[in-house]
Amino acid sequence: MAAIWAGIDAGKSHHHCVAIDESGRRLLSRRVANDETELLDLLADVVDLGDKVTWGIDLADGGAALPIAILLNHDQPVHYISGRAIHRYRGEGKTDARDAAVIADQVRVRRTCSPYAPRTRPSPTSRSSPAAAWTWSPTAPAPSTGSAPSSPASFPVWNACWTSPTLARSPS
Asked: Alpha helices of the chain — where are they, by DSSP H?
């Protein structure tokens, strides 16, 4: 087995994922609902394709929050690829599958992408503000579409990472 790159063209209710190998050959192309069960099935199927999977996604928040949370909670590297980078390669006949393939290919060829990473959650005795406990952001500069949410009130799905029995990590 080898390295795999997976691109997700994120939407509000559905996403499209394309997984490619080192040569750019499509190994998987699938439309999935923005649903935890379907996204976990997709994750399992893509991980089964290779030794190491690197993920790319075209949104930093909104409909992409659940896939990002699931991937991060399963220790999967996730990279943000801007819409501007994707638009450059669209050409005629834009489709979700084509955009997902471009995202996967951009993550494969761009070695300078910084992965998203959750900031560590402060201990309950910490004197930091409640909003600081929920601040998530990519390690790279925030995308031009805006930065990640600063509190669960402004973006409840981030809270799911810590409370969902499926998503919550076991203590290590």
From this structure: 36-47, 65-73, 83-90, 96-109, 130-133, 157-163
pTM above 0.85, yes or no: no
What whole-number distance in Å separates Cα of residue 2 and Cα of residue 123? 39
148's CB contacts (< 8 A; 6+ apart) are 60, 61, 135, 136, 137, 138, 142, 155
Identify whether the C-beta of residue 97 lies closer than 8 Å to the C-beta of residue 29: yes
CA distance 121 to 134: 7
Q: Are 34 and 15 in contact (CB under 8 A)?
A: yes
Write out the chain's pLDDT in tens, 172 residues.
Answer: 589 999 999 988 999 999 999 999 999 999 999 999 999 999 999 999 998 999 999 887 788 899 999 999 999 999 988 766 666 665 555 678 888 998 999 899 876 666 776 654 545 554 444 444 444 444 544 444 444 444 444 444 444 444 444 444 444 4
CA distance 167 to 146: 25
